[in-house]
Amino acid sequence: MNLIVAVDQNWAIGSGGDQLVYLSEDLKRFKALTLGHTVILGRKTLATFPGGRPLKGRRNLILSRSPDFAPAGGEVFSDLTALLAAAPADSFVIGGASVYAALLERCDTAYITKIDWSFPGADCGFPDLDKRPEWSVAEEGPELEEGGIPFRYVTYKRG
Ligand SMILES: NC(=O)c1ccc[n+]([C@@H]2O[C@H](COP(=O)([O-])OP(=O)(O)OC[C@H]3O[C@@H](n4cnc5c(N)ncnc54)[C@H](OP(=O)(O)O)[C@@H]3O)[C@@H](O)[C@H]2O)c1
Predict the structure, then answer these.
(1) Containing domain of residue 140, as a range?
(2) From the CA of 30, how far away is ligand 1's center (Å)?
(3) pLDDT at residue 7, rounded to an integer
């Protein structure tokens, strides 16, 4: 299983229920990597998408304990066991913080967008993979920049 996430210098990923920043280049890459695949996400992350709608061109597996939650175009699971039974091995975990934390151990490839910036209002994060001996950097791209914000793509592999 894969995961994809954008982190800042402190491995923070969100603020006030939304992304820290939207980088159009990163969004394009996210689309290119995930299109045609299954994505796994939490109900709060779905709420950040345009219109709160599941992503097109991908099978959306959404975690929620709310029995009435049934967004068109998505499949809702009330527990991880049921979701994992439905998730193919090439799925992408796309957030948020609670879902990354629950499924990190199931993933073997992590596509990390490292934003070389510190966002003071950040209120949720992702585990620092540089401090996890089971993860190592497999590929590190060049420094890119958008709107004055430097970032790079780093792929981590388990093992
Ligand atoms: N930087 C990035 O790449 C990135 C990517 C994605 C998200 N984010 C950010 O992450 C933040 C959201 O993260 P979050 O942790 O607050 O929310 P989340 O993980 O997106 O969603 C949490 C919700 O998912 C459901 N859920 C989670 N675990 C479950 C389980 N084991 N069984 C059943 N339902 C479960 C619950 O929904 P119910 O309340 O409906 O029961 C829970 O309230 C936002 O700031 C968002 O912008 C950042």
Answers:
(1) 2-158
(2) 18
(3) 98
